[in-house]
């Protein structure tokens, strides 16, 4: 029992924060980077009165995030740089890019203090990354007074990326970043990055750091009464002849056992348990010994006698170092045992222990990185996900890219770049050629100008190049056209200035051959596509309800608009035909937003759904034909296919493919089959619906706002494939329950974007809001509006529950916890971002699709495993071994 009490359990890497010992003379801060995160850019650098360090704003090294300030109550506990912080409400990963000197060893530290800046009293939890590798989980619930993490690291490139990655619903934040260069030899050659444990022994609550430590290492005090040792001190100056430059203050006190005959024992654990460990023990005799007194002890590291009969020199530092490839089961022990000859017990002044942090993931190939960053800068792409390493970690890599990962230790390569519809202007940037492993390049639907560059032909790995719908000019390089023979798919339609068949003959007679080859190629493409459309349209005429698994076939913006009109003619039906189809409107399927829907048959076999539009306001349907002609051209696997229409006097009808499996709302309520939709099925359905909506927003020209996204508009076909219904209608039709005024706000109560409601300004983001409500429905399975509830509207109710931290009560109890909580959380977080009151802060549908796919991936990959994120709060995620060992602030 007493023996245990003597053990000192030290903690690694994560330390609690204390006030700093008082200032002496400021010293040289060459090479120090001291960033006060969240400090406004227009404020000039200041000297922190407590540490003497000069802090500057972080705004020059990060473009994202917002400033926050701790509550007043924290002002007295913390030094000035910790009072403001930068927090990151947007994006999964936000990164600082810091300039460093490569191959120089640095001490890298960061402070995190929540201080209830947002008044929500919800302590954030998130991950800290260095480049592509996870460094630490920051759990501020556990460190309410803030936490500081540090490591020794030698960057191999001249920029260092420190990233904060959101892992739950809380926003990551950071208070300071402090980077200090070290002498190269201070700790000898080091094979990797090191996490640090660094203590001196005194009964105090103050850390020692700069200016007492010229390298600004942080030395934490260690002492506990129950340890049964005492602190001895000296006021004499201790000389430090070695290279360690241990601060004199840290050496001026020492620990020694209370009972002179017992050894002094120190234990700590490493994470991972297999980590290699380097130990530096700093000694100095600080008591005045009489002539007949001696202090001599043996040092055992991991129970091996590593050093015998050691006597600390008087008032002079002596450092003894050990290393091991691994402590037994990750548990390191140090014992100082008094020798027989010694009259005094052992003593120790300070200890440092390092363990190697494993950083397994290689950064993306540097030339790919520099090329893609150049592309980003040239086109001024400000994508929130385009921060940090482009390819790793894989769950937060840059949107619009695909990478090839061979093994984790070899640098990933960028293999696909899809910048379609990103508003790119200017020429095709030359740095694209530095992406030497690129297989797919999609620059379609931008306003790129200039010529098609020759170097594209030299990029041997390219398989697909899509340059269509731009303003490119000149002629296509022959070498590139030749590449089509070895399988390159080159798409370049709708570049009016780009030389093709006729125009080139006139302009450039000499290059007669080129356009002919080009045109032959494009004619072939056009014919193939036309045939495809023809076949598919024919299918529609016969109202084939099989979904076309090929996805997007055609959209209204492409060049085939003026194709033969006999196809569309055939899709117009007379009222008589409709009457026959529906067997005199016999079987009602439901009542939609714009009229009653009937079941019908075409050719006596193919099932269809006929929506008969309410006749009362027929004059509002002036644009009917034009609209429907447009809608007939919208095809996507996740949109309910419009196969025909009826427009005869007052008789207006729309004929859709038949969706035999009801809608999402019915399934959620259990009304359809009585059984509960699993979480995975819910996700699959919403991914489908989101893809349909994304297509309306980005795949259609002009973009189409659905305006009436809701769970009852998400229908299921015979294969349970979800399709969005009723799109495009509210553009020119009123909803059934509202009189038609052109400015009236359309939509279903509860799903309606409040911003749109107030401003009457409609955008795709209004659909995103409604989609967010659908997500809340699949998560909670609760009514959107319920007056008996504490908060009537579901968004407010979920917000309240989140604030209360009552996450479990949000989730549909019918799921019976049969889901991956990480997946549900991510979906919840996504839903809440979709329903952000400010449309500008909502994600776009592409982002929603990606995030939902991630949720699905989480659910698929983690289920069955033992990871239960619900118990997150109780899981010890830090590197601490035991909480008793954590020094407490006094
Ligand atoms: C980092 O280095 C780059 C290139 O050397 C330079 O353009 C940039 O201004 C530097 N950033 C800072 C914050 O010093
Ligand atoms: C940096 O260090 C690595 C590994 O020691 C070495 O391979 C590389 O050449 C060094 N680079 C420079 C610029 O010194
Ligand atoms: C935070 O610091 C204050 C003042 O030093 C102290 O009273 C409080 O107990 C500390 N909280 C925690 C969780 O350590
Ligand atoms: C560390 O070593 C590198 C290369 O060996 C050298 O360029 C640099 O100046 C050294 N830094 C210090 C602080 O001694
Ligand atoms: C040790 O702690 C005491 C009490 O807090 C303090 O007065 C003294 O300055 C400390 N000594 C050193 C060397 O830190
Ligand atoms: C230093 O040690 C002496 C006893 O040796 C003790 O009386 C004194 O309080 C100690 N001073 C500090 C600052 O701990
Ligand atoms: C050492 O000598 C002093 C007197 O000079 C005496 O009081 C003390 O007991 C001696 N200690 C030992 C361990 O012999
Ligand atoms: C592309 O590669 C060339 C040659 O290797 C190099 O000079 C150029 O700086 C690179 N450009 C970018 C943006 O990385
Ligand atoms: C990824 O790279 C490796 C090595 O370069 C190559 O063998 C493999 O085919 C690539 N995989 C893909 C999908 O491109």
Automatic annotation (TrEMBL):
SUPFAM superfamilies: L domain-like, Protein kinase-like (PK-like). The gene is LOC104786798. It comes from the Eukaryota. The keyword Transport does not apply. It is found in: Membrane. It comes from Camelina sativa (False flax). ATP binds at residue 611. Gene3D superfamilies: Phosphorylase Kinase, domain 1 (3.30.200.20), Ribonuclease Inhibitor (3.80.10.10), Transferase(Phosphotransferase) domain 1 (1.10.510.10). It is a single-pass membrane protein. The keyword Transcription regulation does not apply. The chain crosses the membrane at residues 512-536. This is non-specific serine/threonine protein kinase. It is an enzyme of class 2 (transferase). It holds the Pfam family Malectin_like. It catalyses: L-threonyl-[protein] + ATP = O-phospho-L-threonyl-[protein] + ADP + H(+); L-seryl-[protein] + ATP = O-phospho-L-seryl-[protein] + ADP + H(+). Residues 583-856 form the Protein kinase domain. Residues 1-26 form the signal peptide. Its main location: membrane. Its EC number is 2.7.11.1. Keywords: ATP-binding, Kinase, Leucine-rich repeat, Membrane, Nucleotide-binding, Repeat, Serine/threonine-protein kinase, Signal, Transferase, Transmembrane, Transmembrane helix. InterPro entries: Kinase-like_dom_sf (IPR011009), Leu-rich_rpt (IPR001611), LRR_dom_sf (IPR032675), Malectin-like_Carb-bd_dom (IPR024788), Prot_kinase_dom (IPR000719), Protein_kinase_ATP_BS (IPR017441), Ser-Thr/Tyr_kinase_cat_dom (IPR001245), Ser/Thr_kinase_AS (IPR008271).
């Amino acid at each position: 029992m007493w023996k245990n009490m003597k053990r000192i359990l030290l903690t690694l890497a994560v330390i609690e924060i204390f006030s700093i010992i008082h200032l002496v003379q400021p010293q040289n801060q060459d090479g120090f980077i001291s960033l006060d995160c969240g400090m406004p850019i227009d404020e000039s650098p200041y000297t922190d009165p407590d540490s003497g360090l000069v802090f500057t704003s972080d705004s020059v090294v990060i473009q994202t995030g917002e400033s926050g300030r701790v509550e007043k109550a924290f002002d007295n506990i913390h030094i000035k740089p910790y009072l403001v912080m930068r927090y990151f409400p947007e994006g999964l990963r936000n990164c600082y890019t810091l300039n460093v000197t490569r191959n120089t060893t640095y001490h890298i530290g960061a402070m995190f203090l929540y201080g209830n800046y947002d008044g929500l009293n919800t302590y954030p939890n998130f991950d800290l990354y260095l480049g592509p590798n996870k460094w630490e989980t920051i759990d501020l619930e556990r460190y309410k007074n803030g936490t500081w993490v540090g490591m020794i690291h030698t960057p191999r490139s001249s920029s260092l990326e420190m990233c904060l990655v959101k892992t739950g619903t809380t926003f990551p934040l950071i208070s300071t970043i402090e980077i200090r260069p070290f002498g190269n030899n201070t700790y000898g050659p080091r094979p990797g990055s090191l996490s640090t444990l660094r203590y001196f022994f005194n009964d105090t609550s103050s850390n020692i750091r700069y200016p007492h430590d010229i390298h600004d290492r942080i030395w934490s005090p260690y002492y506990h009464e129950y340890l049964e040792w005492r602190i001895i001190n000296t006021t004499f100056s201790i000389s430090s002849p070695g290279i360690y430059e241990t601060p004199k203050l840290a050496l001026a006190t020492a620990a020694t056992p209370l009972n002179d005959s017992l050894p002094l024992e120190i234990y700590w654990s490493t994470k991972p348990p297999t980590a290699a460990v380097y130990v530096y023990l700093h000694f100095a005799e600080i008591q005045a010994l009489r002539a007949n007194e001696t202090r001599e002890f043996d040092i055992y590291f991991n129970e091996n006698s590593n050093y015998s009969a050691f006597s600390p020199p008087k008032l002079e530092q002596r450092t003894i170092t050990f290393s091991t490839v691994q402590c037994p089961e990750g548990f390191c022990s140090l014992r100082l045992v008094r020798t027989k000859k010694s009259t005094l017990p052992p003593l120790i002044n300070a200890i440092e222990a390092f363990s190697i942090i494993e950083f397994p993931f290689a950064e993306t190939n540097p030339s790919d990185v520099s090329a893609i960053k150049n592309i980003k800068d040239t086109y001024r792409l400000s994508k929130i996900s385009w921060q940090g390493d482009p390819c790793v970690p894989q769950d937060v890599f840059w949107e619009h890219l695909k990478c090839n990962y061979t093994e984790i230790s070899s640098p990933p390569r960028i293999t696909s770049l899809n910048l379609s519809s990103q508003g790119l202007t200017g020429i095709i940037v030359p740095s694209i050629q530095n992406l030497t492993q690129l297989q797919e390049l999609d620059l379609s639907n931008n306003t790129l100008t200039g010529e098609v560059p020759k170097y594209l032909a030299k990029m041997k790995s390219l398989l697909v190049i899509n340059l269509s719908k731009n303003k490119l000019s000149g002629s296509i390089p022959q070498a590139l056209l030749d590449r089509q023979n070895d399988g390159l798919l080159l798409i370049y339609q709708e570049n009016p200035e780009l030389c093709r068949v006729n125009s080139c003959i006139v302009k450039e007679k000499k290059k007669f051959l080129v356009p002919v080859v080009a045109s032959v190629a494009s004619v072939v493409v056009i014919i193939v596509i036309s045939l495809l459309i023809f076949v598919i349209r024919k299918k529609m005429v016969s109202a084939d309800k099989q979904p076309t698994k090929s996805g997007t076939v055609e959209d209204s913006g492409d060049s085939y608009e003026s194709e033969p009109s006999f196809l569309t003619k055939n899709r117009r039906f007379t009222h008589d035909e409709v009457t026959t189809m529906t067997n005199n409107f016999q079987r009602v399927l439901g009542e939609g937003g714009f009229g009653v829907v009937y079941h019908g048959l075409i050719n006596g076999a193919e099932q269809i759904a006929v929506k008969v539009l309410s006749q009362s306001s027929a004059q509002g349907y002036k644009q009917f034909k034009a609209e429907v002609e447009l809608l007939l051209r919208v095809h996507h696997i996740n949109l309910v296919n419009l196969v025909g229409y009826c427009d005869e006097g007052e008789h207006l009808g729309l004929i859709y493919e038949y969706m035999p499996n009801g809608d999402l709302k019915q399934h959620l309520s259990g009304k359809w089959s009585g059984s509960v939709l699993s979480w995975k099925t819910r996700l699959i359905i919403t991914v489908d619906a989101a893809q349909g909506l994304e297509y309306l927003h980005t795949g259609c020209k002009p973009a189409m706002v659905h305006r009436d996204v809701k769970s009852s508009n998400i229908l299921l076909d015979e294969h349970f494939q979800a399709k969005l219904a009723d799109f495009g209608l509210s553009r020119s039709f009123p909803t059934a329950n509202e009189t038609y005024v052109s400015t009236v706000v359309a939509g279903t109560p509860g799903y309606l974007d409040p911003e749109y409601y107030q401003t009457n300004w409609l955008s795709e983001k209004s659909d995103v809001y409604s989609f967010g409500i659908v997500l809340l429905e699949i998560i909670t399975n609760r009514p959107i509006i319920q007056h008996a509830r504490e908060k009537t509207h579901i968004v407010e109710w979920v917000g309240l529950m989140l604030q209360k931290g009552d996450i479990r009560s949000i989730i549909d109890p019918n799921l019976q916890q049969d889901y991956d909580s990480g997946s549900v959380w991510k979906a919840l977080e996504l839903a809440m971002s979709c329903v952000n009151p400010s449309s500008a802060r909502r994600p776009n549908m592409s982002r929603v699709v990606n995030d939902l796919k991630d949720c699905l991936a989480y659910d698929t990959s983690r289920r069955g495993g033992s990871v239960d994120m619900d118990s997150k709060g109780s899981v010890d995620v830090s590197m601490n071994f035991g909480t008793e060992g954590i020094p407490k602030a006094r």
